[in-house]
Amino acid sequence: MDKLLDGSFVLSSYGEWLLTQLEIARYWGGGQRGSEDSKDLAPDHDGISLPNRWEMTREIQLWDWQRKCAETWLNQGRRGIAKVVTGAGKTVFAQHLIERLQTEFDSELRVAIVVPTIVLMRQWVDSLTTHSNLPRHSIGCLGGGFDDRFNNITRILVCVLNSASAHLSERVREALVGDHLLLVVDECHRATGRSMSKVFGTTRQYNLGLSATPERENIEDSVDENDTATFPDQLETSITNELGLVIYELDVAEAVRLGILSTFEIKHYGLPLEPNERMSYEKISRDIRELTKTLKGATVRAGSSKSLFRLAQHFAGKPGSTFFGDASEYLMDIRRRKNLLYLARSRTYAVLEIVSSTLDQSPDSKILLFHESINEVMRLYLALLRSGYRVTVDHSKLPDSLRAESISLFRSGGANILVSARTLIEGFDVPSADVGIIAASSTSPRQRIQTIGRVLRRPKGETDKRAIIHTLYMAGTVDEAIYDKTDWGKVTGAEQNFYFLWSPPPLDTPPGERSSQGFVPGKQPGPPRQPRPTELEVDWDGLKTGEVYPGKFEGVEYHCDHQGNVLDLTGRMVSNPQGIPDLVFATCEDSFRFKVTPVKRAILCWDRRSQSVRFVGFLGKPFRATSKSPVRAGRQKGIEHDLPLQFRIKQFRGQRRIQDYAGRFALIPGQAEDQEKGQDAEKVIQAINELEKRLGKPVYQFLIEGDEAYCVLDGQRYTLYRLKKGLEFR
């Protein structure tokens, strides 16, 4: 303790650090999890006056990009998404925009800010109260124990997504403020799904989205090395429809060039699995590949638009389904493999070596350390604590009070190492650091970019700081998939990236010998993998139909059938298939799916025989989809449908028969209790036989809508027969 002049005592920075670590140990050891300390967000209701003109960025020096982006947003319909790297000041930009909108265009402005987490809600409230002239009671909260509403005093409502989904639309309607409402969606790349669709039902006048990377990514996060059935990164249609298109972009490299973020270098280290870990990894991966084949087959047969991971989740949630066992095992193996990689023993050694080497060379360094697993975060934190380092910890299972104390310690220098789970990436506005260690991460480029932005925040008053980011991955595993997705040389600047393969000494090496072998990774010429070029980067000259396509397997996905029809992933029929199915089958004979790239409209399909993407040709005109998606008859029993019902034509005991998708055959005369229904089935078969003779093309399926039985071939509809009574199934 330090003694003050008045005789009282205050804790030194070391004492504060020690006290916080004791509180963390007491909390974690007591088995408590995730309580929220929110009383400090309660507004002060003293006084009711509001300023006529809002000042939202007091004592802040704005960057040029913030002014330009606000001008663009105001001039382009007052809607749109700002795609700006983490750490460049998106929150301040939004406050500047709010100030301009209120003072120049709408004096009755109301603002609803939707955030994904309670932590982020607290950050917004703190920034608004610190830098604006609005009284605290004019800023309300919805979620995290708060239930505020718009009124004459409360002009801004900061809402956690789940609470906004349940209540925001109603609150806006009750207060009659929809004509003056600005909806701000922070981290808008999360703005998908049912919860966000309810938020988008809110009446409002203005829209703003904020994100470092608003593009969609696969939920399965590259779960398999050979899984090519993935979607390209692209903006979610629902987000752009609701919030507007991207109106401004600022990436890492440009932010560094402008001096907004610190100059930096990234060192990528490929680490080895130990022999027993490698053996387990290979076995799990083989199992995943086998299960992937089974589930992909189910996807094709079901005509499902779901990704492989989503389909597995669907089947795993239905204990009676055919693929329940395979889907459950697939998901379990994905988790097992991810955990195996997260817990690889060489990660711990590498982290300790990097920390030791960093502080030996520069004792004043401030280190941010990230890991995906909270349990591993705590294990690394305790290992560093036992080694005598001034370390603290942050993750979502600690109460906000302890999290805030840890951040404060790191900011003040009481602790020079902060160990965090991924929650920090979209949580606290952390202070600057000069060293980042990404001990383990998903294969999400979005998350990696956000993490980099956290480390590169420029300290106030410093212009020559250079940050170093160490990122670890397990060599020869799916950890390398992130390099398939993104060219980090382009994202961050090619001269900023250095690649190494590092084989730490075995863990059973005596401690003295381990340290003597030192931190000596071997430099590599480049990343372990390279992303394929986009369609705009592909050299199209000389590329012929059937040849291997050198670019990414990207674009909008469709599936086709042997009747020459094309359907989108919602099941809607395309009215102008343009002969594409025949070209797809000729190029990739067992492929029923293909993609159309967004710019060139190039048609691509996956060839299972050669395990490669093939170029089919170009689409002459954009596809036009019909308005209705047929329902496969027999799949949903006892439900009345306004949509067309789809049936198959099958051979059964030497005869062509009608079959529904539950496997039942329509009864014919002599079998049906209602003879007219038996005759209807017979008449449909006869009409199909006649149509096949006339067109010279086989019919495998047909539809019934109302009393009309019809089929679609090459996108053209042919009426077969008007049913008198319908069909009868046993």
Notes on the structure:
This protein is 34% helix and 20% strand. By secondary structure, it is of the alpha/beta class. Among the domains are: 39-250, Rossmann fold; 275-341; 631-722, no CATH class. The strands form five sheets. Strands 6-5-7-4-8-9-3-10 form an eight-stranded mixed sheet, sandwiched between helices. Strands 13-14-12-15-16-11-17-18 form an eight-stranded mixed sheet, with helices on both faces. A hairpin with a 2-residue loop joins strand 28 and strand 29. It is globular. The relative contact order is 0.08.
Topology at a glance:
Elements: E1 2-3, E2 9-10, H1 13-29, H2 64-75, E3 81-84, H3 90-104, E4 110-115, H4 118-131, E5 139-143, E6 146-147, E7 156-160, H5 161-175, E8 181-186, H6 193-199, E9 206-211, H7 237-243, E10 246-250, H8 252-257, E11 263-271, H9 275-302, H10 308-316, H11 324-342, H12 345-361, E12 367-370, H13 374-386, E13 391-394, H14 400-412, E14 417-420, E15 435-438, H15 445-455, E16 466-474, H16 481-485, H17 488-492, E17 497-501, H18 511-517, E18 522-524, E19 556-560, E20 566-568, H19 580-587, E21 593-596, E22 602-607, E23 612-618, E24 631-632, E25 645-652, E26 655-659, H20 675-695, E27 701-705, E28 708-713, E29 716-722
Parallel strand pairs: 3-9, 3-10, 4-7, 4-8, 5-7, 8-9, 11-16, 11-17, 12-14, 12-15, 13-14, 15-16, 24-25
Antiparallel strand pairs: 1-2, 5-6, 17-18, 19-20, 19-21, 21-22, 22-23, 25-26, 25-27, 27-28, 28-29
Helix pairs in contact: 1-14, 2-3, 5-6, 9-11, 10-11
